[in-house]
Records
---
Amino acid sequence: MESGKFAGSRTALALATGLYWILFLGFLISFIVSGNAISMALTSDRIVDAAGMTIAMASSRIIKLPPTDRLTYGYHRFESLASILLIITFILLLLYTAVISIPDIHTSSIHSPLFTIYSSILSLVLLPFIAVLLHGDESFTTRTMSIHTLQDIFTTALALIGSVVLLFYPSGLMLFISAIIIVAVSVVMNKGMVTKNLRLLMEGTDLNTRDIEAALKAKFPMIHHLHIWDVCRHYRLATVHMYSSGDSRLTELEPIRKEITEYLSKYGVNHLTLQFEPSEEK
């Protein structure tokens, strides 16, 4: 039963990923044919969708590879590394969009927005279908992409509105403003993804570790130096030191270890290293 459900989920994810690539190619072809900066702005956004889902699907297999003598945590950071490379590409494409749109400010003859309109309509037809495919899947990636799909509908609607206006009132300045608005909205909407992956590479976490340590100290005053970090989006580690009397036995300390482990598991910590040290008391 679970296997069938998983297979069905992977099929839906593969179909959604394929549709993302179709939308990316639609705007890319639109830009190549017309040179319209609005199409380039949407191309930049769609590459994040298509490549992001592809990376997520590939990483679900890669992270299952066994650890090695040099990679003792295995390949859990693959998705974050790939995502950072994708983010860099995304930023460069947005900068390119901004640069190519500047000459349009002082021109009276603009690139035809028809191809952008066609691509936008195609996106608005397929994006709700993609959202349906992703709906109900509880994995972090698909929940994130499901939300991002709704954001894509908004940016695509902006592109369609701007292109329709340009169709009847062609203006280089209006084209520039429309492209920059879409670029700005795309940056804001992808800000969370950027900061999360940068935090992962910096071995950080979105938890407030000071509050967690204070809560632990309220029950175990001898606790100190709590560290929590995320290896990847589903592997959270923690280390904590604790003073104990020099004559304590492991059997006496085991209940404390279990209680701390159980408490931290509420915050998603699935690997804890607890180091007991001789008490500072003399």
---
Amino acid sequence: MNVSIFGATGATGKLLTERCLKAGYKVKVLAREPGTFPFADRVEAVQGDAKDQNAVRKTVEGADLVLNALGARSLKREEVLEVAVPLIVSAMQEQGIRRIIALGSAGALDSSLDKQSGLRRWIVQHIVYNTFLKWPVASQRAQYAALSGSGLDWTMVMPPMLLNAPARGNLRVDGDALPRDASRIARCDVADFMMAQIGNPEWVGKGVYVAW
């Protein structure tokens, strides 16, 4: 299988790359500085930026599957997803590539907090989503809109806070909202869940929440 990975140089992207290589997939990544990528000698690297249409097209070319682990690197307004995801979608449509599995976040939809208590819902919505994470959340909402309107076989995995911690494996998975009192999950668990969606039709055309 040929897999193209966006955001491969990020923390979760590296985990996805490692897992794809272990599975025996042929991997192509987009990187600003391919020479510094830990798996540079085992992947095909396209040098460039995810906001560049030509670089995105080259990265997607020949793929059977696209994994997107792009995301905000700060709390500032970056608009990486607002620009990059439509470019990825367009390139996939042009080349007839159907399947994309994307890393999102729990704040991508208004309904994400429906299973939380009233106080917790108010705190997370008004203090976290509307203040500290205002711009990252806006980017994830844009990603969801681009994927859900794409006509592709998409899945957006939406975790709460990501931790650089050992995997537990015992996830709570919900297609409607973030599980009650869920607040964190290990990147390893999220990467494993994303990999498990390859060939799995259960969450195609849907967003899905995962948490401890």
